[in-house]
Design a protein that fits this description.
About 30% of the residues are buried. The protein contains eleven helices and eleven strands. The protein starts with a helix and ends in a 5-residue tail after the last helix. Helices cover about 50% and strands about 15% of the residues. With about 375 residues, it is an alpha/beta fold. A five-stranded parallel sheet has the order 6-5-7-10-11, sandwiched between helices. A two-stranded antiparallel ribbon has the order 1-2. Strands 3-4 form a two-stranded antiparallel sheet. A hairpin with a 3-residue loop joins β1 and β2 (about 45-50).
Amino acid sequence: MRNKNIIFSFSILFLINTIIILFLEIIVRYYNIGNPSNKFLYNHIIPKRLPYYRFKNLKENENIGFLNNHGFHDFDRELKNDYYRYAFLGDSFVEGLHVPRDSLFTNHLNRKFELNNMNSEALNFGMSGTGTGYQYKIWDHYIRTKVDINHLVLCFFLGNDLENNSSYLGGPKENYSYFIDSKGSVILYGTERWLIRQWISRLNNYSALTNTIYQRLYLLKREILKYKLKSFRNQKTDNNYKLNPNLVQTLDHDAWSNVVKGTLNLIARWNVELNSEEIKFSIVIIHPVEYYEKKTQFYNNYKNDFLKRLEKLSKKNNINLAQIRLKDNYKKYFWSHYNYLGHTEVANQIYEKLIMKKDFSIHE
């Protein structure tokens, strides 16, 4: 009799907890507090979004994101066709989850191609929160082996891409993150896949509640790590102050110098690999809204140096290089990322600066 009472009590407790969890799941979804995770590990090493996934973007501008057959924010794309195909790689400015797919600058380009009877196609392979190391890996492990392209366009966001390429300068430290060393090698950070973590990842693909909790805990963890890193640097500075009073400046200088050198080395090697496969390479520099408020004063000396050295590297290696420049009333093009008008303007500038000036002969 006692055992039956215990079983009954546990059953009631389990039922109550299940109802509470289901209620919270409904609340999270109904009020758009969060979404289930849409990522998985491609080939067990590259974090990538799930194909044919639908979710709501809640940042800056509420929008329903539809992922295509490749798992990117774009319309379905064939693996191969007879078009001259541009593959655009970059971070959230390229992925453009803040606008519908037909408003992306890549699809504005596709309409221009069609209007001008150009046998060309723009494909969007943007992934939010990534740096150049990840973008190289998604090309190397996915695009290179699956999708036939003629021209790769790397969209480099000078606002934080260099920082995202360095673990020291604030790049996201989560499992399967990618950083760049001074030689241009792409370094994988964090590969632990404990059984519990695998279960949590699988659960997050179905539950908005657990994924939202997981994301909030991850953000808290990032802030704690930043605080610990800052404390460690200050402690290290205090302990060595008499020996080197400029230790923090030295550490920062080394980190910036290494990431600038490493990113340029990776771009140079990437260009060689593309040339070996007869794929053209172009780079588009994207500036944040703050840049237009302060102009060159917004960037530190290392970013300005990176731009100058990238220009020399591009000229030497025949890499097409263009910068998106917004002159008149620049704020109308932004939320924090590009808005609808911003994507239209970016498409116009890429069409004029890269496609018409550099590649017009291929369309004749």
